[in-house]
Task: structure prediction
Amino acid sequence: QVQLQESGGGSVQSGGSLKLSCVASGLTIRQYSMAWFRQAPGKEREGLAYSGGDGYTDYRDSVKGRFTIPRDNARNALYLQMERLKPDDTGTYYCATAASGDIWFVRTYNYWGRGTQVTVSS
Result:
């Protein structure tokens, strides 16, 4: 059974930093592409950062230069390092894996965590 467990969310002030973690079980992440998504209140879930199994990474324009998506294959873990956070970054953050299609589409991913809440105050 595949499980993804996010952690590291919390409340920070604008300009602050957070590092989210996603630990996988039931699959070996080195073989899979992975991504972080965010769902803000009242909005659809959107992809923020993508990490291919080949080392390729990509970012939505709104987070480029502020977020990075390192992975630690030995720990079977994916991270989202977030810097210079803004109130618009508030939302529930999800990690996802096993993509088959457009990397920014929710339906592309077969497995999802339950999410971790990030709140950025001004």
Remarks:
- The longest strand covers residues 91-99.
